[in-house]
Write a structure and sequence with these properties.
homodimer, about 450 residues, alpha/beta, 4-stranded parallel sheet, about 35% helix
Chain lengths: ~450, ~450
C-alpha cells in the first residue's frame, strides 16, 4: 500500500538546525526552552505524543486511560514558530556528514540532541524477553491490562485447579518504584475489584509475588522507606521475595534459585538500559548502553552532539555509573542544555554552565493512603507522603484537561474503591518468535 | 500457546437457563430486568464491555477516549446473583438440541435471546469492504482516529500536491445520523484543531464530502430538520452530495456516478444489516439479515428463541421493513421481553404483552450549538436541540464516572475549541487481503 515517496520536507532557512531525537521529559523540556532561539528546532519521535511514564502502571491496572497520561506533541508546541515535529524512527546517525537517517528520509543537523530514553533490559535472557510483559510504553501497558483480564476470563473456564491459579497469579520482577507501584496496584485490584467481577473464582488462591535480586526494595530510598514499603506490601497480601533472581520463564513457570512459581503473567520491571542509536563511535557508549557525556552533556568525542536524560551518563567519582535514569535528572539536563545552547548561539561561550544535579528526593506510592517520600532529611511513609505523591504527579502532568481527568479518576477510585477501565479493547496475543526476533534486534 | 481446555463452566442448578447473546442496549436492558427472576441468566459477548455506539464518532475524531463510552459488563451486574457472563464468540445455534456452540464450548439453553445487533453493510462491494473504514466498534473507531492522524503526518512529507490533498481529504458515505455527526465533527477538526497542529499544511485544500444516495440527509427526520442539517454542514465547509452513489473505491479514488474524488480516507456509514448467527431456518431471517419475529419478539418458527434490538424485524403493514435499527427500539424490546419472560416463568401466559413501539423522537448533532431534534410535533434546530442532545446522551451513558469524564471533555472542547486526544496509540495498518477474506466471511 505505502508507495508514498517521503522526505522530511522542512522549510528552507538560513537558521541553524537543532535536531532533538525523542519527546520524553528531556526532549520536551529542552524544546520548550528553545522557544525564542534563532534556530530551526526539529523534534523526531516514533509517537505523536509524550508519555507520562510514571503513571503507566495505572493504565496497566485499569485505573487510567491512555489519554490521561499521553499528550500530543504538536499541541505542546503549537505557539512555537521555530518548532517542527516529524513522527519517525531514527535508524542511524552519520556524524561525518552531520546527518541522521530516519524512516522518512535523511536530515542534516547543526546540533544534535539525543534524548532517546531507555529500553527494557532483559539481561540477555531470551525466554524472559519473549514471554514476559515489559511496561515502557502505552501500547505495552494496554497489552498488560488486556492480558490480566483475559487470564481471568480464562480462569473461569478451566477445570484444572493448578491452571486456574497459574492464570490468576501475577509475578512482578524488580523492586524499584515501577515494580513496587505495580505490585501495590495489583494487590488493590485483587482486594477491591476482582472479587466483585469474578465471584465464581476463589481469589484467595491468587498469589502476587514481587521478586527483587537485592536484599531490599527501593534500593535508592532510605532504609526506613524500604522497610516500610515491604511492610505495606506484605500487609496488602504481596509475597515479597528478596535476594531472589529469575533464572528462566517459559510462559507458565517462573524459575528462581529458590522456588518455581506457576504464573501466566510475568511483569518485567527489573532493568533498563539506554536506547542509543547506531552510527556513533563504540567508545562513546557505556556498558549500560548510555552515551558517555561531559559535564555539558556533550557526547564524548563529538562537538555538536549532546545526550540528555536516561540515555546519557556523566561518569564522576561520586557517580561511577552516572545519575539515576529518572524524570527529574532528564528535566534538569534539559534546562541546563537549553541554557548552554542559547549561550552557544549568542557566542557567549563564557556563560556555558556545567551540569549540577539537585536531588529533590524520591517518592513511590504503594496503595491508598500508602506512599514513601524521601526528600532530603524529610522522610515520610503513609498518608502524608501519599497526598504529596498525588499532587506532585498531578502537577507534573502536561495539560489542564489531563490533570482534571486524572483527578476525577483518582477521586472516583478513592471514594468507591473502584477502577473503571476493565476493558479488553485489543486482546493481547503474544508475538510469534519471528516478531520477537525483530523486537530483540531493534 | 493456547492449549487450555475450556468449557463454559456454569454452576449446576435446577433453575431454567436464559442465554442472552450480545451485550448491546437490548441485551443489557433485558438482563437488568431479569434480576429477580428465578432463572440462571447467561450473557455471552465477544467483548467484556458494553459500547455506547451513539458516541463512537467522537472517539474516532479525538474528542473522547474509549473508556468514556465503554462500560465493563461484569460491573453492571455485580450485584445480580443469578447473572453469569462469558466472553466468547457464538458460532452456531442448534435449536434441535437447544444448544449454542461458542468459541469456549457448548451450552444448553431453555430460552435463547438473540441480541447480536448489526454489522456494516457494504452491499456486496468487495473493494469498498476492503478499503473503507467502518465504524461499528471501538477498535474500528480507534483505527479511524489513527488513520486520519497518520494521513496528516504523511501529508507533511509529500511533495506531490495531488497526493497531499488526497491524504487530507475525507469522504463520508451515508447521510444518516452517523454520517452527519461524523461530517460535522471532522469539519470542526478542520476548522479548530488541524490548522494549529499542522501549520505547514494548507488546510483550505482539504475537502470533506458527505455522500448520500437519497435526495436528502437524515431521511427519517422532518423535512425541516433535513434541510437545516444540510445548511449547517454546508456552512461548516462540508460538500454535501445527494442522489449520489459510490460505485467503487481502490483506497485512492472514490468513484461515484458523477465524479471521482481523491481521498485516502473513505468512512462507510451507508448501511447496516442484522448480524444473525448460523444454524436457524432460512425462513426465519429476512433480506436485511434480521430475524423475523412475532409481536412477542419470538423468532418465527421457534417457541423458545427470541430476537430483540437491531437483529430483529417485526414486519407489519405500517412497518413493512421492520422498525429502525436504533437504541430506543432495542431498549423498548428488552423491557417488553423482560416483562413477558417473567410472565412465562410465573405461568401467567395471559399477561403476555405484545410489543408496541413508542417513538420518542430523533436527534442528531452536527457541531457546537448545532443539532436537530424532532420530538413528536416539537421540531428544533440549533442551540436548544444541541443542549437537549447533550443531556439525553449524558443521561443514557452507563455509569456516573463515565458521565463526569464525558462532561469534562465536552466542557473542555466547548470552552477552548480543542479536542485533547490526537493520539496514534496503535498505528492503523490495512489488513491483508487474506485477513479481509476472514472479515468478509465472519
Amino acid at each position: 500500500m505505502n508507495h508514498i515517496k517521503t522526505r522530511i520536507n522542512l522549510p528552507e532557512t538560513t537558521q541553524k538546525r537543532i535536531v532533538i531525537v525523542g519527546g520524553g521529559f528531556a526532549g520536551i523540556e529542552l524544546a520548550k526552552s528553545l522557544r525564542d532561539l534563532n534556530a530551526q528546532v526539529l523534534m523526531i519521535d516514533k509517537n505523536n505524543y509524550h508519555t507520562f511514564q510514571p503513571l503507566l502502571y495505572q493504565v496497566a491496572t485499569a485505573g487510567l486511560e491512555p489519554d490521561s497520561i499521553a499528550f500530543p506533541i504538536r499541541k505542546i508546541f503549537k505557539s512555537h514558530k521555530n518548532f517542527y515535529f516529524r513522527m519517525a524512527c531514527v535508524n542511524e546517525i552519520r556524524p561525518e556528514t552531520q546527518t541522521i537517517v530516519t524512516s522518512i528520509g535523511d536530515v542534516r543537523y547543526d546540533y544534535l540532541v539525543l534524548a532517546t530514553g531507555s529500553d527494557t533490559n532483559f539481561f540477555g535472557n531470551q525466554n524472559v524477553a519473549h514471554y514476559s510483559m515489559p511496561m515502557k510504553s502505552i501500547a505495552e501497558a494496554l497489552d498488560l491490562r488486556s492480558l490480566i483480564l483475559q487470564n481471568f476470563e480464562q480462569a473461569l473456564l478451566s477445570g484444572d485447579p493448578v491452571e486456574k491459579e497459574s492464570l490468576m497469579n501475577i509475578v512482578i520482577v524488580g523492586g524499584g518504584p515501577t515494580g513496587v507501584e505495580m505490585a501495590g496496584a495489583i494487590a488493590e485490584l485483587k482486594k477491591h475489584i476482582l472479587p466483585k467481577d469474578y465471584p465464581e473464582l476463589n481469589l484467595s488462591a491468587m498469589k502476587i509475588c514481587l521478586i527483587e535480586a537485592a536484599p531490599r526494595l527501593l534500593g535508592t530510598f532510605s532504609d526506613k522507606g524500604s522497610g516500610k514499603t515491604q511492610e505495606f506490601l506484605t500487609e496488602m497480601g504481596v509475597t515479597v521475595m528478596l535476594n531472589t533472581q529469575v533464572k528462566d520463564y517459559n510462559g507458565e513457570v517462573v524459575v528462581t534459585q529458590n522456588a518455581n512459581i506457576n504464573s501466566k503473567t510475568l511483569i518485567w520491571a527489573a532493568g533498563v538500559s539506554g536506547a542509543p542509536v547506531k552510527g556513533m563511535k563504540a567508545e562513546s557508549v557505556n556498558r549500560g548502553s548510555r552515551y558517555l557525556v561531559d559535564e555539558y552533556n556533550r557526547v564524548i568525542g563529538y562537538d555538536n552532539i549532546f545526550a540528555i536524560g536516561d540515555v546519557s551518563a556523566h561518569i564522576t567519582e561520586e557517580n561511577p555509573k552516572g545519575l539515576p535514569m529518572v524524570a527529574p535528572v532528564a528535566m534538569q539536563h534539559a534546562e541546563n542544555l537549553g541554557h548552554n545552547l542559547k549561550a552557544i548561539f549568542n557566542n557567549k561561550v563564557s556563560e556555558l554552565k556545567p551540569f549540577r544535579y539537585h536531588d529533590k528526593g524520591s517518592m513511590a506510592t504503594i496503595g491508598r493512603n500508602k506512599a514513601i517520600a524521601d526528600i532530603g532529611k524529610f522522610h515520610s511513609q503513609g498518608f502524608l507522603a501519599w497526598v504529596m505523591w498525588m499532587f506532585v504527579h498531578l502537577f507534573m502532568l502536561i495539560g489542564f484537561r489531563n490533570r482534571v481527568i486524572v483527578f476525577v479518576n483518582w477521586l472516583w477510585s478513592y471514594a468507591i474503591y473502584d477502577r473503571g477501565i476493565r476493558l479488553i479493547i485489543r486482546p493481547f496475543k503474544r508475538t510469534s518468535k519471528e516478531t520477537y526476533e525483530v523486537r530483540k534486534a531493534s
